[in-house]
């Protein structure tokens, strides 16, 4: 009687398949491209946010400056515009047009009840200080102080004034002041926000 011995199958060792050098290089290259694009998009978003913040700061500060100026000019009288500061104290009745534009504007407050100073008909003067890149203000003979924020750089500010003659020679047109302000905001050049602003103000009380 014979017995058969079953054959023993020897398992072949499993072969582990690894990435080739070319596959690794391609993977690393794709990963680098994706990361570069992602970082670039993030930097763009950061710059956009900084510019938006700068613009918000500009609008907040300039809105305050222009609104306060417009209120005093609209209710004032004795408009005097010049490209240089007068050497002597201006009389309340002194006025002067500035059709070609000037950096100096002086106004006598006409409505004490709406006065921002509460001092009653002083001369309020606005001055563009090009050295400091600021629009400045003073009341009476006091010193000038800046209206615009330190981060808001005014590169140009011009006042245009017309029809301040109080109806002389039949001209009954209302005194009109046009303000043009140009500049930029921010401390980092790459995210600075530039702006141009213009507004026209007419005297409220009839000049007749």
Explain what this protein looks like in three dimensions:
- It is a single chain.
- This protein has 208 residues and is α+β, with helices and mostly antiparallel strands.
- Helices cover 26% and strands 31% of the residues.
- A 5-stranded antiparallel beta sheet has the order 1-3-4-5-6, with helices on one face. It has a 4-stranded antiparallel beta sheet with strand order 2-7-8-9, covered by helices on one side.
- The longest helix has 54 residues, at 21-74.
- Mean pLDDT is 80; it is low at 112-116.
SSE inventory with pairings:
Blueprint (H helix, E strand, L loop, with lengths): L20 H54 L1 E7 L15 E5 L1 E6 L13 E7 L4 E6 L5 E2 L5 E11 L13 E10 L7 E10 L6
Antiparallel strand pairs: 1-3, 2-7, 3-4, 4-5, 5-6, 7-8, 8-9
Share in β-strands: 25-35%
What is Rg? Answer: 35 Å
Order of helices and strands: HEEEEEEEEE
Percent helix, as a range, is 25-40%
How would you classify the helix and strand content by structural class? alpha+beta
Could you give a short description of this structure?
The protein is of the alpha+beta class and 208 residues long.
Notable traits:
single chain, 208 residues, alpha+beta, 5-stranded antiparallel sheet, 4-stranded antiparallel sheet
